[in-house]
């Protein structure tokens, strides 16, 4: 049988890794797919750049349009990134009747609904395992492996750069900016690293996970995001004293009123496995009603780890080249006409526990004023610690852990506490999840 011909858009880190893995494991991959797979045509913005892969035998161009218009190409692998040129190329490929494999989380999270509708109309597949958590096969696990479950919630460390920063801050007391610069040097960070540290990259990935977990359309615009830039070394140390670790989590939970979709720094008990996922590693916890809690761990970024997911998608597409489009695994796990309109909840309606750090004048009655506000707002306190007065400062840091309460009540309480004369500056808030 003729080899299946791949058109590759992008020869950067993941593109180069994909060429290398497909070449190195060609024989094993052909035995799995039932056909040989070759990259016949590839594009890169700058053809003169040094590469991590050998492109011998591949027709090269700096115009990705030539690849998506190539009649010999059956599967287009989009590894350009971003959501402008990549979007145009993916839509052209689909219009040309080609299957698509992509690692592009921003593209799927923001334009996936339209892309999947176009793909369904054309009877082609759009596979995107590499878009979430790099090499961890989390899409396949939720979409296929957990298909018998009602998914209750999921929570993940789905940005390696952010996890690397928090780990280095905790383990070595390093400063934020210094660690971020190292993540950029190592090639983990996004082209715009604010996507990593402000939680946008994680929100892209969480949006995709929630859609396949609950069978709802992709709604990135409704995701709540809070970054890690305001986390201090003190917060990391205080959390540790209380038995918690701070992780930048993407959390999505099904509630009777709708779906929570939120990315923010989170205190989690240090005894949880996921609290011990360090460095650039990713991990996703998924709770199904039948299976219970399951945990998926691995490299969330990097050339060959991400290529592992890209190549698995290529193999899946090759295996289904001859199958009836109606009987393929649906893009969002549920049949397209069976998606639910369960709403995404506004953050004010989400209920969590909290870690609060505030700076208060060290004088009688201040604590009573603060706890009085908590009492009036129906907020129950789980723990309080007061730290020593820093030299030359009239204020002392006080840390509260609260029980679960709606974000709306906590917002009002924080506003009232910040207005007290005895309080200096803003109240730092980090949400807390037991993940039990
Ligand atoms: N910038 C991303 C991360 C790359 O750090 O996880 C993988 O999506």
Notes on the structure:
This protein has 436 residues and is α/β, with parallel strands linked by helices. The chain folds into 3 domains: 4-135 and 303-338, 3-Layer(aba) Sandwich (Rossmann fold); 139-299, Dihydrodipicolinate Reductase, domain 2, CATH 3.30.360.10; 351-432, Alpha-Beta Plaits, CATH 3.30.70.260. The protein contains 14 helices and 17 strands. Strands 7, 8, 9, 10, 11, 12, 13, 14, 15, 16 and 17 form an 11-stranded mixed sheet that branches. A 6-stranded parallel sheet has the order 3-2-1-4-5-6, with helices on both faces. Helix 4 (85-95) links the parallel strand 4 and strand 5. The longest helix is centred in the first third of the chain and has 18 residues, at 105-122. The radius of gyration is 24 Å and the shape is elongated. The termini are far apart. Bound molecules: L-homoserine. L-homoserine is lined by residues 134, 159-161, 188-190, 196, 201, 300-301. Residues 134, 159-161, 188-190, 196, 201, 300-301 line the site of L-homoserine (HSE).
């Amino acid at each position: 049988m003729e080899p299946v011909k791949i058109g590759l858009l992008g020869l950067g880190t993941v593109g180069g890794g994909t060429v290398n893995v497909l070449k190195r494991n060609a024989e094993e991959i052909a035995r799995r797919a039932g056909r040989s797979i070759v990259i016949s045509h590839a594009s890169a913005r700058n053809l003169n750049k040094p590469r991590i892969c050998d492109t011998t035998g591949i027709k090269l161009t700096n115009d990705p349009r030539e690849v998506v218009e190539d009649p010999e190409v059956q599967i287009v692998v989009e590894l350009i990134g971003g959501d402008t040129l990549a979007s145009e190329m993916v839509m052209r490929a689909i219009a040309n009747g080609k299957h698509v494999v992509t690692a592009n989380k921003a593209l799927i999270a923001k334009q996936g609904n339209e892309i999947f509708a176009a793909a369904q109309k054309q009877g082609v597949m759009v596979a995107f395992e590499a878009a979430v958590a790099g090499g961890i096969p989390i899409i396949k696990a939720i979409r296929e492996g957990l298909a018998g479950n009602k998914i209750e919630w999921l929570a993940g460390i789905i940005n390696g750069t952010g996890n690397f920063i928090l780990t280095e801050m905790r383990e070595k007391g390093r400063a934020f900016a210094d660690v971020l610069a190292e993540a950029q040097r190592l090639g983990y960070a996004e082209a715009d690293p604010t996507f990593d540290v402000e939680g946008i990259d994680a929100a892209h990935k969480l949006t995709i996970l929630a859609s396949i977990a609950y069978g709802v359309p992709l709604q990135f615009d409704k995701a709540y995001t809070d970054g890690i830039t305001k986390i201090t070394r003190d917060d990391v140390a205080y959390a540790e004293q209380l038995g918690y670790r701070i992780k930048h989590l993407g959390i999505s939970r099904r509630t009777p009123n709708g779906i929570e979709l939120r990315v923010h720094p989170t205190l989690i008990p240090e005894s949880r496995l996921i609290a011990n996922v360090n460095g650039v590693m990713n991990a996703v916890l998924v709770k199904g009603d039948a299976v219970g809690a399951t945990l998926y761990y691995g490299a969330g970024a990097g050339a060959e780890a991400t290529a592992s997911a890209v190549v698995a998608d290529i193999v899946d597409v090759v295996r289904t080249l001859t199958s009836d489009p109606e009987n393929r695994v649906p893009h969002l796990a549920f049949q397209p006409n069976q998606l639910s309109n369960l709403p995404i909840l506004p953050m004010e309606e989400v209920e969590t526990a909290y870690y609060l750090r505030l700076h208060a004048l060290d004088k009688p009655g201040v604590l009573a004023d603060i706890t009085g506000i908590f009492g009036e707002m129906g907020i129950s306190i789980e723990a309080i610690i007061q730290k020593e007065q820093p030299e030359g400062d009239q204020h002392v840091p006080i840390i509260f852990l609260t029980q679960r309460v709606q974000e709306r009540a906590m917002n009002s309480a924080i506003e009232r506490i910040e207005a007290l004369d005895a309080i200096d500056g803003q109240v730092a808030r980090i949400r807390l999840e037991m993940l039990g």
